[in-house]
Amino acid sequence: MSSSAGKKCLRSAVVANNTVPRNRAPMVSTGEPTMSDIVGGMASGHHFLRIQSYSSTVKGRPTGEYIRSHHFTVGGHHWCIDYFPNGTDKAYADHVSLRLILHQSISNPAVKSQHLFCLAGEAGTEAEQAELLSLEKVRSYTPGSLSACAEQFIKRTDLEASEHLRSDSFTIRCDIAVVQDFRAVYTTGLVSVPPCDLGRHLGELLETEKDADVVFEVGGETVSAHRCVLAARSPVFAAELRGPMKEGDVAAGGVMRIQDMEAEAFKALIRFAYTGSLPELSARRTGTTWSGSS
What we know:
Helices cover 25% and strands 34% of the residues. By secondary structure, the protein is α+β, with helices and mostly antiparallel strands. It has two domains: 40-184, Apoptosis, Tumor Necrosis Factor Receptor Associated Protein 2, Chain A; 199-293, Potassium Channel Kv1.1, Chain A.
């Protein structure tokens, strides 16, 4: 075969291999794009454990002996806290020690989570607590098994000299974040909706007092808030704010006086209206009467 004939055959073969058969239509994308996700996340919450008659829990109780709290639920699982008034062992006999226990798992035999103990009076804002919690080690828990302890939670001498021990009582806050299982889901659209954190945002609005338009005076303290939030959350507030105090706004110096209630309890009531959660209270709740001044 001559050189020119060989080149002609080669060109014919290339053309044949790259020719679309006449009975096959070219592929054209005409449908909408689809999407699937691998999703997980964290379910978090916190629990307050109040230790009353602290001195009685210390006296006559050997090191290593604990008192177990009632169980509570965070992230769909039941937890409890072991309180060691004289430490977990001899090395920590001068400390108060704590231990988190997975009391019962509703869905999984093993649970991965992060936890953080602190004195209730030392807790920061919810955003600050969430950031600190995210730095903690992820641990695995099974129901009834022993988990990592906070052996050196606080020295008893430091606790007894602090403002946190009042009337022989103090309160511990335990934050927990549960790692949820990852799973594959089909997404009907390309928009991913984030989890709702409205409570956190409203809590920050309350703390910053931005655009507050009503002031309450209670127990010698003033508390600023937002009429629209309180009126939407409580028919009692709605009646008061739209009634006698309707015209008395902050700019005009209007103040709503709350009688027969301590400031701490009232602040907790307002925070619940904004966030749906209550902080730990040391004050006794009492009856409330209202009066307005402008």
